Amino acid sequence: MAEQNMEAKLKTWLKQEKIQLWNPPYTDDNNQPGQQHMQELAERYAPLMCLPVQEVGGALESIRVQAVKRGKGNVTFRQTNVATLELLLPRDSKKDPKTKNHLETRLDVLVQEVVDRIADEFGLKHIKLILNGKTLCVDQRLDEQGVKNHSKMMVLKVSDAEWKQQLSEDEEKKKNQNESIQRTQKGFQILSERDGSEDTTPFLEIADQRGNPLKIPHTEKKALILAMGFHEKGRSLMKKKQFENALCHLLQADQQFSKCGSALLGSVDNFAVLQLDIVWCYRALEALSCLDDGKSRLQRAEDCFLQCYGEQQQRLLMIKGNTGREQVLFLRLYLLQSLLSFLEGNDAQARHQLTKVESLYSRLCPDSEKMAQLMALGFTEREARLGLRACQGDLQEAAIHISNQRQEREELRQRERQRRSRRMEVISTLTELGFSRRDAARALHHADGDVDKAYGILLDSSQASQMTNNNTEGAGSPERVEQLLYLGFDREASEAALRLTGGDVQSATQLLLDNQGVLSPELLSASPPSSSSPSPSSEEPSTSSNSTADSELVNEVLEDISRHEEDYLDLTLEEESQLIANMKTYLSRGPTHTV
């Protein structure tokens, strides 16, 4: 890390002065160093870095050699498609610790071929290759896994016992990771499709900062629930220090967020928090090669916070009454920005950000004595920590604030219970009139809770269904199929939807919309409604969402959702404290000195 910082600074100065070390007078025709001019450069830069001339000269020579090799490698790659890779070998395998090792290879070969060459050339038995913090799969090509000309690859030795164990563990780990992602996705998909028609069945709603349900288009709501579900799972894994698995889930969340409209993302801070969590995982995994991606993610997070909270956080103040609890997000943002600035060799910017971090830390780090006093009053550790931050450390104000929050949460729960109870009553009333609970719930949803409007929707649907049942042309008549084709659905799905809904075009359309135009095998295996049914669908469940397996899956993913709406703000700052201490050490050796 210190070498990276020093070389980054030297490269910046060389670039500013337009000095090209790979050209004369710094490199002669035989690619050897121009000793006098290299010495003069070292003597000029050494005082600026507060380092010995010899150390700076060694770093400059390292940069020069890299530049010469890179130039030769570029020519070779252009002419022959043979790339030059830099190998970071195990310490005990290096002949000269200061000499960098390179390997020339085409990029369209399997990783196993490169592994065999490295093992043979450097006398290593079992090895694995690491690129950008990820282990390369031996049964895939180099270019398929992001390896490029001049890529740096870490070579790790593996013992015989570890090798056998690793083969089985890698297979098991990949299987578990993929299974975890699939189970998380399926669980939240089931939840995203539920409409609350069953009083005992869990379902999810998207709410604002005050807990009020938000009206969001169906497809966007499904994507948002999946995104938030993957995010919650990733955060749960982060708490267990399983950062690699957490990162996989967080990146899945990022993909789902990309399906949401920019207006929605600009009104909630979830997307910004996700960007911070992804970069925090990069840091934990020491994936310094993800520097560029991390920098752009932090910028997106900062822009999103600005849009959500307002330039002076006035929107946040208006919604929540204070901004103290959200300050931990800015602490982590500035801390990560400080780290990335340091890795780029920009010590001044790193110090500037770290000053902001320390100022926030002094205000946000909980006072243990005040925490104990609040907990003695019956408040939880989380309540005490968040309360003190919200009230800038004022003990009495924090106690009042926590009590008010408890009361507000209880009132919100009561309103939600009453709202759901009223909804169940309306659905039951409509059911008594001969409609199925599922259709009644759907109609009520489309009518925005208006019972008369919902009844009208159901009546129209029932009459259309009756006409369909009396129609000799059958459920899948060409006219009805053509109507669905006109709406953009494919023929096979349209015909299946019409069969399942007894030929009712409106219900078939809704069914296709609810399933994004693709009917699952479970739906296709369901029986169509009987002709005596007064509504397009019968009381029998048409999907497997009520099955035991699905119930277990839903309960599993619900375990990862925090029961406290501000869990993402409840950072203990222990990890941040350690990184702050490390950054102060890195930057403590003078204005431009490296560690």
List the helices and strands and how they pair.
Blueprint (H helix, E strand, L loop, with lengths): L1 H15 L18 H15 L3 H28 L1 E7 L12 E6 L4 H11 L5 E5 L2 E2 L16 E6 L2 H34 L24 H22 L3 H15 L4 H4 L4 H15 L6 H19 L4 H7 L6 H17 L3 H18 L3 H9 L4 H10 L4 H38 L4 H10 L4 H19 L8 H9 L4 H10 L4 H10 L6 H4 L23 H11 L15 H13 L9
Parallel strand pairs: 1-5
Antiparallel strand pairs: 1-2, 3-4, 3-5
Helix pairs in contact: 2-3, 5-6, 5-23, 6-7, 6-9, 7-9, 9-10, 9-12, 10-12, 12-13, 12-24, 13-24, 14-15, 15-16, 16-17, 17-18, 19-20, 20-21
DSSP, total strands:
5
User: Number of helix segments?
Assistant: 24
Helix content: 55-70%
What is the radius of gyration computed over CA atoms, rounded to a whole number of angstroms? 31 Å
Structural class by sheet pairing and helices: mainly alpha
How can the largest sheet be summarized? 5 strands, mixed
Residue runs with pLDDT of under 50 for 5 or more positions = 199-203, 527-546, 591-595
Strand content: under 5%
Strand numbers in spatial order across the main sheet: 2-1-5-3-4
Mean pLDDT: 78
End-to-end Cα distance: 8 Å
Structure description:
- The chain is mainly alpha-helical.
- Among the domains are: 75 residues, no CATH class; 79 residues, Phosphatidylinositol 3-kinase Catalytic Subunit, Chain A, domain 1 (Ubiquitin-like (UB roll)); 102 residues, no CATH class.
- Helix content is 61%, strand content 4%.
- It has 24 helices and five strands.
- A five-stranded mixed sheet has the order 2-1-5-3-4, sandwiched between helices.
- α9 runs antiparallel to α10, α14 crosses α15 and α15 packs across α16.
- The radius of gyration is 31 Å and the shape is globular.
